Amino acid sequence: MNYIPGLLAAQQGGFTLTYIWNQATPEAKVIIVILLIFSVFAWSVMASKALQMRRAQRLNHYFEAEFRQQKSVLAIFDRKLQVDGCPLFSVYLDGCNDLEGHLQAPDGTRRVHATLKGVEHVKRSLEGSVARESLRLESGLVLLAVAVSGAPFLGLLGTVWGVMDAFGGVAVAAQAGARADLAVMAPGVSAALVTTVAGLLVAIPSMFGYNWLVHTLRVHTVELDNFAQALASRMETEFLKDE
What is the extent of the structural domain holding 120? Predict the structure, then answer.
């Protein structure tokens, strides 16, 4: 390793990021590039999921308000409305489609009452719909989890590798009779530490974003469960014949 030009550059311009990048080993540069790619994907996921969940929350609010105003549980379904991106509407549509099938008479007309078995089948259909909507909202969060848990270790790997390389260079320089002190070792160590900083810069925002998204997802899941139970209760009250 050639440390004298590095020392001159440090004395003249200080340890800038460009200088530290030039001092980094090829392995450290590869790890930093990988972390940069992780960061781009992590921020993309956080932005897209935040927009998706905010839109879902807004549409859920509007749909639930509209649903509560209907006298019949199938009123919105009979209007053949389509509300893309609304989890509550997706659960409602699945439940109504299943209920419609159980109310269908052989002559094509809609029966007034459903059987107990049919209502129980609708309840199970609603549970499956809630699970599917939760999984759809959860998709993509695994990338944030990987960024949170993996980025610091990648950064640490680059740091350990760089420090090992720096000490090896000092040992080689000492055997060759060159001066081996802190000023000679500092550029390599500082360049090695950059990978740890890069790993933390990826992991910390991803951690905050992941925790917020997981909390929001839990809120949406509870809302879906509550709506599915209320919907099943209204269907049972309206269409299940009293024995």
Answer: 4-239
**Contact (Cβ atoms closer than 8 angstroms) between residue 3 and residue 167:** no
| Residue 31, C-beta contacts closer than 8 angstroms, at least 6 positions apart | 154, 155, 157, 158, 161, 195, 198
Largest Cα–Cα distance in the chain? 100
Tokens 């004395």 — which residue? Answer: 11
- 89 closest CA partner among 110, 66, 69: 66
Rounded CA-CA distance 41/213 in Å is 15
What are 21-69's pLDDT values in tens digits? 777 778 888 888 899 998 999 999 999 999 999 999 999 999 999 998 8
| Letter string b/e over residues 140-154, b meaning 16 or more CB atoms within 10 A of that residue's CB | bbebbeebbebbbeb
Distance of CA 215 to the CA centre of its chain: 11
Name the phi and psi angles at 58, rounded to 5: -65, -45
Tokens of 44: 């993309």
Q: Are 157 and 179 in contact (CB under 8 A)?
A: no
pTM equals 0.78
Burial group, residue 213, by CB count within 10 angstroms (0-12, 13-18, 19+):
buried
Q: What is the dihedral of CA 17, 45, 215, 122, to 10 degrees?
A: -170
In the chain, the number of structural domains is: 1
User: Tell me, what amino acid is at 227?
Assistant: F
Q: Are 126 and 232 in contact (CB under 8 A)?
A: yes
